[in-house]
Design brief:
- It contains eleven helices and eleven strands.
- The protein has helices at about 10-20, 65-85, 125-135, 135-140, 160-170, 190-200, 220-230, 240-245, 250-255, 265-270, 280-285; strands at about 1-5, 25-30, 50, 95-100, 145-150, 150-155, 175, 180-185, 205-210, 215, 235.
- The strands form three sheets. The chain has a six-stranded parallel β-sheet with strand order 2-1-3-4-5-9, sandwiched between helices.
Length: about 290
Amino acid sequence: MKILITGISGLVGSALREYFTSEGHEVRGLSLKDSSKLETLKELPPLDVIINLSGETIGQRWSEDAKKRIYESRIISTRLLVQKVLELKNRPKVFLNASSSGGYAKSQTPATEDSKLISNGEFLKRIIIDWEAETLLLDQAGIRRVNLRFGHILSDHGGLIGKVLPFFKLGLGGYQGSGKQLVSWVDIDDAVRAIDFCIHNESIQGPVNIVAPEVVTNTHFYEALGKTIHRPVWLSPPVWLLKFILGREFAQEIMLNDYNAFPKKLLDAGFEFKYNTLEQSFKHLLK
């Protein structure tokens, strides 16, 4: 296959490049930071797959300028990319676009892909809804569209673990807020395999929850991490301190919100996770 990946230097993009290259596929990267570079799409040979992972990191303090950059790096770049794809004579068979499992309503019942996204004024939820909307034109063109709704991606090369592991190694580990908030997560290896599965399974289209079948509490997540690396988990920063350090919006929407999603489409289609429990994933990543 000929595969184009935007955001190829990021956590998921670099893992996908390594995986698909090892499988013998031709992988190309494209930066969308400069929209003029989209012109190079016209010079590319026929593509089988486009995977759009482009977007400025969410993991920063959300000033108004940062929110503008975060939003536009996803919405506008995806809009331009879709327009360029529709102009191609040889269009890809499938277009996979990054998204998040953080757009569902708060509920103790795990959200499936049939659950509605909600717009309640939260910044992240607005991004998710608007981001996925930019890919809808692909349906009219007969290009299979897959919206990858990721949970927290666990990797030994960055992501959530990369941010908290240094503190845990120093014995400063702990959960956030009440610790009762729910966490949907996925091992990086399973995320890559799930994306490959979506590419090859033509029955899969639309939103797909890229999360493990197990949902855990924030407390469980960090206690399992501490146990794996043999470090205590005893700190619990108060909510006001998290909001002061990280910013009110970021702390509330990323650290203190529930992420409760279930991978119904993947499981119904026969996908098998290698890491079904948090403990399995941590042992794999942190051995």
